[in-house]
UniProtKB/TrEMBL annotation:
<protein>
    <submittedName>
        <fullName>2-keto-4-pentenoate hydratase/2-oxohepta-3-ene-1,7-dioic acid hydratase (Catechol pathway)</fullName>
    </submittedName>
</protein>
<comment type="similarity">
    <text>Belongs to the FAH family.</text>
</comment>
<dbReference type="GO" id="GO:0046872">
    <property type="term" value="F:metal ion binding"/>
</dbReference>
<dbReference type="InterPro" id="IPR051121">
    <property type="entry name" value="FAH"/>
</dbReference>
<dbReference type="Pfam" id="PF01557">
    <property type="entry name" value="FAA_hydrolase"/>
</dbReference>
<keyword id="KW-0479">Metal-binding</keyword>
<dbReference type="InterPro" id="IPR036663">
    <property type="entry name" value="Fumarylacetoacetase_C_sf"/>
</dbReference>
<dbReference type="InterPro" id="IPR011234">
    <property type="entry name" value="Fumarylacetoacetase-like_C"/>
</dbReference>
<dbReference type="GO" id="GO:0019752">
    <property type="term" value="P:carboxylic acid metabolic process"/>
</dbReference>
<feature type="domain" description="Fumarylacetoacetase-like C-terminal">
    <location>
        <begin position="73"/>
        <end position="277"/>
    </location>
</feature>
<dbReference type="GO" id="GO:0016853">
    <property type="term" value="F:isomerase activity"/>
</dbReference>
Length: 283
């Protein structure tokens, strides 16, 4: 299944994508899509629904993040060896964990707002893991049993903020820095999550081309590893790292996003996103 949420920010309704790619309104069956709604039992019940009998949503409504109430947004850094090389950083011997503020989460096509004082805005196409059942000290062999599905993420970064200290979080958690979606794609829809093509364009020019098969630590390893240090709850999201081609790694000089730039990205089977960069607005 492909599950989503549509409508104005803060007023999203749950939806499902049908076999023909149409958006169907799920709100008569579910008022919300939260971590509690992606348990194995809940997903099994949704899978039994005949999507063709649900109301077809007309037009092209805004899509929000595919879940609400996400408790943790965890990120894995430098998880592609060629991205580590372009960043002039060593290949990590174990996964690097940092957090992205949940207030950064937004819809897949929402504008990206450059934060006040920002000067080095960058892009990162990533596969995101969505947890479906509680995971605590799980083995690698059983780790994917705790995964509800996958979604596309852009780990937007303000490198000037990020590199001010060894703690990356303040360059990762600004508002609108966490576009998720367009859908949560359930695990059964993806034959091999370790072989998905991924790409990202800036103003129509290809910047990133990669495949999830070149991760240093695969999703099963990541879920098992992270679950040693924190309990993973239904609805938690883990972004798994990015392939090479980020602005920080451009040669001979880095290239940064600026207001008016358009970023488009996608992962095979998980859909695509489009963001326009906007100036910050004082509040």
């Amino acid at each position: 299944m492909k599950l989503c949420r549509f409508g104005p920010a803060g007023q999203e309704r749950p939806g499902m994508i049908d076999a023909a790619g149409g958006l169907r309104d799920l709100s008569a069956l579910k008022a919300r899509l939260t971590g509690a709604d992606i348990s194995p039992a809940a997903l099994s019940a949704l899978a039994a629904v005949d999507a063709s009998r649900l109301p077809l949503v007309q037009g092209n409504p805004r899509l929000g993040p595919p879940l609400e109430g996400i408790g943790k947004y965890i990120c894995i850094g430098l998880n592609y060896s060629d991205h580590a090389a372009e960043s002039n950083l060593p290949i990590p011997p174990e996964p690097i964990i940092f957090m992205k503020a949940v207030t950064a989460i937004c819809g897949p096509d929402d504008d990206t707002i450059m934060p006040q004082g920002g000067s080095k805005l960058d892009w990162e196409v990533e596969l995101a893991i969505v947890i479906g059942t509680i995971a605590r000290n799980v083995t690698r062999e059983s780790a994917l049993d705790h995964v509800a599905g996958w979604c596309l993420a852009n780990d937007i970064s303000e490198r000037a903020f990020q590199m001010q200290s060894p703690q990356w979080d303040k360059g990762k958690g600004c508002d609108t820095f966490g576009p998720l979606g367009p859908w949560l794609v359930t695990r059964d829809e993806i034959a091999d999550v370790n072989d998905l093509d991924m790409w990202l364009d800036v103003n129509g020019e290809r910047r990133q081309t990669g495949n999830t098969g070149t991760m240093i630590f695969d999703p099963a390893t990541i879920v098992s590893y992270v679950s040693r240090f924190m309990t993973l709850m239904p609805g938690d999201v883990i972004a798994t790292g990015t392939p090479p081609g980020v602005g920080m790694g451009m040669k001979p000089d880095p290239v940064w996003l600026k207001p008016g730039d358009v970023v488009e990205l996608g992962i095979e089977g998980l859909g695509r996103q489009r963001q326009t960069i906007r100036d910050s607005q004082p509040r």
